[in-house]
Design goal:
single chain; about 525 residues; alpha/beta; Leucine-rich repeat, LRR (right-handed beta-alpha superhelix); Immunoglobulin-like; five-stranded mixed β-sheet; 27 strands; elongated; disordered C terminus
């Protein structure tokens, strides 16, 4: 108990008759797990983590009478493995994950007196599983005879049974079963479909399975432009089918489709097309399918001319029932290539905000025809992108099929091309970096090497000043030593043309009343 075993020990004595390993770490029963213990009669492996059971894992266990595998993680069992255990009487598989019970499952358990399949994941099984069970077959042959047959206890409760036509035979078996087969809990309940959930097997009457049959009240519809239209088809099938709509071989989005049962075997499916446009015209196909097959029905939609109106081209007419609806629109965000709009529906539109559709009309200000975008209920913001820069646009928001009114349109101009701004900004950054590098060179050396003519370079060593004035003049010179403050290409300050003698040029006197030109920073270079 609670041992850290990961496999069946190999050194078990041959005369052992009972093995109990529980709450351990066993994950599988490999082939020949008990080949040296042929005298084994009781094998308890409850509450482990067994997920796999080899088809020959019970080989050589001819004397095995009891096998308990409760509380493991088995999703399937190799039922033919029980050919090696003909004496088995008790099989406990409750609290596992079994979801399938094949028709031959009980064929190799002829002497079973207790079978527990409760608390698994069984949903649909055939009555033939039990009709093929030798215990049941013996009970049928012994009816009216005095032959004594041992009872067999069967536990099938706490499984998520799906009570549709596929379970019809099994439900009939449960209703008719009697000794020697005894149900541990005869009140088996349905988990689905919803209208049968929680009902006992003896309360339901299940019909035979049926291939889907689709129909529509009207297969040809004509609607004016701008109106909402709902296409409806009805499906009769058992079990409940999957239903979907297609248009021009394209699967339509699920949020425009609603499907609900209106009877035990009848389903109604509706497709909503908001504010119908001419491009919405065509054939819409409603298809239903279950395991027996599939059928479909086609509905043809024609979109006619809109109501007579004096509104400008491109705008939908006003529905008489929505004259009080009004929308307030504002720009929440604007970029070079688009904007983000926000709107608020007031008056009649605010009465049912969860069912209000909006029409967004976008185009150039001078365009007669604008693009229409249809916005579903519950949405009050939309981003318009991929617009041309430096262009005047108009955007309007209207409720359902109304024409836009005053205050429901916004006129705006997109910005300049951002690429030019980015290039200009990069160029400024490059110029500033170059200037900073140039200013790091001493002003005197720069003047000697960069601004002198080639003929004067030989005389520069004697001509360049070797001393600067006192600390005050030196500090002032360092502050003003920028590229802009240097002489503009003249050699007068470096060499004297006459006599070859070098000397410094006397500083120029500032004229009274004449202001010094302002110092230029590096940004002015650009």
């Amino acid at each position: 108990m609670s041992a850290l075993l990961r496999q069946i020990p190999a050194n078990i004595p041959q005369d052992i008759r009972k093995i109990r390993i529980e709450n351990s770490h066993l994950t599988e029963l490999p082939r020949g797990s008990f080949e040296n213990i042929s005298a084994l009669e009781y094998l308890w492996l409850n509450f482990n983590n067994i997920t796999v059971m080899h088809i020959k894992s019970l080989e050589y266990l001819l004397a095995l009478k009891e096998l308990r595998l409760q509380g493991n993680k088995l999703s399937s069992v190799p039922w033919t493995a029980f050919q090696d255990t003909p004496a088995l009487k008790i099989l406990d598989l409750k609290h596992n994950r079994l979801d399938v019970l094949p028709e031959h499952a009980l064929r190799y358990l002829p002497n079973l007196t207790y079978l527990d399949l409760s608390s698994n994941q069984l949903t649909v099984i055939s009555r033939d599983v039990f009709y093929n069970w030798p215990v049941y077959q013996r009970s049928q042959r012994a009816e009216g005879q005095r032959e004594a047959i041992a009872n067999a206890v069967l536990a099938l409760h706490d499984n998520p049974w799906i009570c549709d036509c596929r379970l019809r035979g099994f439900v009939q078996f449960i209703k008719s079963v009697g000794p020697p087969i005894i149900l541990m809990n005869s009140y088996l309940t349905c988990s689905s479909p919803k209208f049968r959930a929680g009902k006992f097997f003896h309360e339901v009457e299940l019909n035979s399975c049926m291939k889907p049959l689709t129909s529509a009240l009207d297969t040809n519809l004509t609607v004016p432009v701008g109106l909402n239209v709902t296409l409806t088809c009805f499906v009769q099938a058992s079990p409940s089918p999957a239903v979907w709509w297609t248009y021009a071989l394209k699967l339509l989005r699920a949020f425009n489709v609603s499907t609900e049962p209106i009877g035990e075997e009848t389903i109604r499916s509706e497709l909503l097309i908001p504010a119908a446009r001419p491009v919405d015209a065509g054939n819409y196909t409603c298809t239903a399918a279950n395991f027996l097959g599939n059928t479909s029905v086609a509905i043809t939609l024609y979109v006619g001319t809109p109501w007579a109106s004096t509104t400008a081209p491109g705008w939908a007419p006003i529905a008489p029932a929505e004259l009080g609806a009004h929308v307030e629109v504002r720009i929440a965000k604007q970029t070079v290539y688009g904007i983000t709009l926000e709107w608020f529906a007031a008056a009649a539109a605010a009465a049912e905000p969860g069912e209000t559709w909006y029409t967004l009309l976008v185009g150039r200000y001078d365009a007669a025809q604008k693009d229409a975008i249809y916005i579903g209920p519950g949405v009050n913001t939309y981003s318009v992108t991929d617009l041309l820069p430096a262009t005047k646009y108009e955007v309007c928001v209207a409720v359902r099929n109304q024409a836009p009114r005053k205050g429901q349109c916004v006129v705006f101009v997109t910005g300049s091309d951002v690429s030019q701004l980015e290039q200009r900004e990069k160029l400024i950054h490059i110029v500033v970096i170059v200037c900073a590098m140039v200013l790091a060179v001493p002003a005197g050396m720069y003047a000697c090497t960069a601004e002198a003519r080639p003929g004067c370079l030989a005389r520069c060593p004697g001509a360049c000043p070797r001393r600067r004035r006192g600390g005050q003049a030196q500090a002032a010179g360092s502050k003003e030593s920028t590229l802009d403050s240097l002489p503009a290409g003249s050699e007068d300050g470096l060499c004297r043309p006459e006599g070859g003698r070098g000397g410094r040029r006397p500083p120029a006197r500032e004229e009274p009343g004449k202001s010094r030109p302002p110092h230029r920073n590096s940004a002015d270079l650009y």
